[in-house]
Design brief:
The protein has 242 residues and is an alpha/beta fold. The chain contains nine helices and six strands; from the N terminus they run E-H-E-H-E-H-E-H-H-H-E-H-E-H-H. The radius of gyration is 17 Å and the shape is globular. It starts with a strand and ends with a helix.
């Protein structure tokens, strides 16, 4: 029976952000990639609204023993879920997760949604600016030029900054893999080290020449780190059963 894997995207993320993970792990795992309703959040506690959405999604699909993977905002939600439902999460994987510190200038988006500015902000996400393709920039620009979507993004971003997770991290019982870009400027490497120190069973893998979204910028390295970790976890489980 295949294990369940859930992939949670970031604030400006798209389901396509996980294409490389789906391609590598799709045959061996049942993978779920929910589209987080970032643009439809209420004014009150939008981050908890998204957590509630994920809880209902998991319940509706009757998922158990989950490998929960989150990037940026998705990592933040994954932390909240793992702390609240420790029996449901078999492994937690965080990459560029918010929740401790995040270097953003979200407040300037509504006033500065020019193509040049958005191009610069998208490039800032990656170590290699070439990863910020025209299509990716166009997706973000479309969001920032839509008033409703832009307000939704701002609500969630501000809510995420308010929900500091340091007190929850010691409660996480799931073995945790942290995959971080060494050149991440949004959640710098020191943030990953703080996650590693605060989560009881955490391992940090650092990818060189990589920014805030390793699964997009360095997909082979990201997949290798995840595969090695899961292989090791399976080996440990097997050794305990014999």
């Amino acid at each position: 029976m295949k294990q369940n894997m859930i992939l949670l995207h970031g604030l400006f993320g798209q389901l396509s952000n996980w294409d490389s993970v789906l391609a590598q792990f799709g045959e061996d795992y049942d993978i779920y990639v929910p589209s987080l309703p970032v643009y439809d959040t209420p004014k009150e506690e939008p981050l908890l609204f998204l957590l509630d959405y994920v809880e209902k999604y998991i319940a509706a699909n009757k998922l158990q023993n989950i490998i929960l993977v989150g990037n940026s905002l998705g990592g933040h939600i994954a932390v909240l879920y793992a702390a609240r439902h420790p029996h449901q999460v078999k492994h937690l994987v965080l990459t560029g997760s918010s929740g401790l510190y995040e270097n953003t200038n979200m407040g300037s988006f509504p006033k500065r949604s020019t193509a040049a500015y958005i191009q610069a902000r998208v490039e800032y996400t990656f170590h290699d600016p070439a990863v910020a393709t025209e299509a990716l920039v166009a997706q973000v620009l479309t969001i920032t030029k839509d008033t409703q979507k832009c307000l939704g993004v701002l609500r969630v971003a501000k809510s995420a900054q308010r929900h500091y997770v340091a007190d929850l991290l010691p409660l996480i019982t799931a073995p945790t893999l942290l995959i971080w870009g060494r050149e991440d400027r949004i959640t710098p490497l020191q943030v990953a080290k703080e996650f590693e120190n605060m989560i009881p069973d955490a391992r940090l893998v650092v990818i060189n020449d990589c920014g805030h979204a390793p699964m997009m910028e360095k997909p082979d390295d990201f997949n290798f780190a995840l595969q090695q970790y899961l292989n090791y976890a399976i080996t440990i489980v097997l050794s305990k059963t014999h």
